[in-house]
Amino acid sequence: MQQQRCSSSDRPLDPGCLLERDAERSADRLGCAAVDFPVAVVLPAGGSGERMGLATPKQFCTILNRPLISFTIQAFERLSWIGTVVVVVAKENHDLMLNIVQKFNHTKAKVVHGGTTRHRSIFSGLQAFSSTTDSLTPKPKVVIIHDAVRPFVEEDLLLKITLAAKEQGASGAIRPLVSTVIATTSEGYLDHSLERAKYRASEMPQGFLYDIIFQAYQRVTYKRDLAAAEAIIKETLSMSACIIAGAEAEAVELAKALQKNLNMVTYKRDLAAAEAIIKETLSMSACIIAGAEAEAVELAKALQKNLNMTLSMSACIIAGAEAEAVELAKALQKNLNMMETDIIPCAKESHTEYLSKTRNFIHISTTASNFLGTLDMAKRFEDTDHARLYPVVVVWVQLNVTKQSVGSQKTDELTAFRSLASEVIQGNVLLYGIQIDHTKVPEQWERSAERLTQITVALIRDRNAALTGQLLHA
Fold first, then answer.
1. Is the pLDDT of residue 376 over 50?
2. Residue 312 pLDDT greater than 50, yes or no
3. Residues 6+ apart with CB under 8 A from 189
4. Using an 8 Å Cβ cutoff, are 153 and 166 in contact?
5. What is the spatial distance between Cα 212 and Cα 66, in angstroms, rounded to a whole number?
6. Whole-model pTM?
7. Residue 121, CB-side half-sphere exposure with 13 Å CA sphere
8. Would you state the torsion angle of the CA atoms of residues 360, 362, 367, 370, taken in this order, to the nearest 10 degrees?
9. DSSP state letters, 97-153
10. Of 139, 162, 201, 398, whose CA is between 20 and 30 Å from 353?
């Protein structure tokens, strides 16, 4: 089970868990204790994405080689107290959605066909629970309705909405109004403006007692014209008409840090913003794996110091046993601002725990052939599905401690490195190479370490697949 990493209020929220630590699992344990009733999610994902201006509907646009809808599903699927996530798609996208569910191992997701409008699709999603013969989709006590293109949602907010819906019948997220709301006359003149402090904007997600929202849809669908009924349902989902459905709506105020991250991905620029948030969150901690040699340990310590000074960065530095490698690791870490780091021995048996805690690794070695050790890491990623949801970065740093020039490096070793990079990228592992010459001149060594830091930071943050297999020089 994956849990959201704790973050300060001014940092973006990740759509899924990246690191597992006991302190970070407390929220889900609280959820398990508080939510002792079945909860499900309906994600309407049948939109065409016309405003995006792309041929591909926005929910299927990719970020880091992964469709946006997959991030949204994971935001709910990672919580143990949420049982089923029903994804409602257009009929022509049914097979595409099934492939996404299978590829990214969304075990809680069920795909159903939607209707011609958003509210018809929501009703189709609710109907997936109404069949008593389908044991795979049990009827929930509370159902959460969310937008398929809103991947950033905090579990604490989901918990509040779920519990409020259980007690009040309906609940939803709101946020303060940013712009002034005005009313105009029929001639187009200003009539009056609302007192902004008295009003809130309705947001997703929203929660309902399943029986209440399902019955409301049934009534308006079968007793009134559906076109007219959609207006009523729209009001119901925005909480002001929940009383019609027999429930009192309770609004859950959004945290300030969440307001900007709940914005829907609507335009092309929103995809870039969402990708930036995900990349930033993927870059928050570091593990330095160093050998027992004094040089490797020295470099690892220096690197750890630098990495702990790097903001918003996550990396695992794997250093060899040589003193120069450890020295380089220490220098590199010094220049990575406020990065959380750990140093562990180079022994393979010590890797297992740390391989599951980060998605960025810096492997420092003093011989070119040592990059083959990353192949073992890549295989472990494949065996544990660690790179299935997010790409893993491995930066191999070759520390040249001899007088031998970089240009004399054997061609077959370079070829093998590029071949390995081409192989592991198929498993969502991005392998980069950096060469650096060791020097005993402090000023030169410091400048080289700074360049190495800058290159490493750029590679980890950008996650550019086009640079894999390249050997850069610091």
1. yes
2. no
3. none
4. no
5. 35
6. 0.77
7. 23
8. -30
9. HHHHHHHTT-TTEEEEE--SSHHHHHHHHHHTTT-TT-TTSPPPSEEEE--TT----
10. 398
CA angle 32, 279, 89 (to 5 degrees): 65
Q: How confident is the model over 203-211, as a mean pLDDT?
A: 88
Q: Spell out the domains of the chain, with CATH numbers in brackets.
A: 22-275 (3.90.550.10), 282-473 (3.40.50.720)
DSSP string, 319-376: E-SSHHHHHHHHHHHHHSTT-EEEEEES-GGGHHHHHTT-SEEEEEESSGGGGGHHHH
Burial of 349 (0-12, 13-18, 19+ CB in 10 A): exposed
- Using DSSP's 3-state secondary structure scheme, residue 469 falls into coil
Distances (CA, A) of 246 to 122, 169, 291, 300: 19, 8, 66, 63
Which of 355, 429, 352, 351 has the alpha carbon at shortest distance from 392?
429
**Would you place residue 226 in the very low, low, confident or very high pLDDT band (cuts 50, 70, 90)?**
low
Tens digit of each residue's pLDDT (9 = 90 or more) over 29-82: 666 668 889 999 999 987 665 555 566 788 898 888 899 999 999 999 999 999
Give the integer Cα–Cα distance in Å for 233 and 258. 26
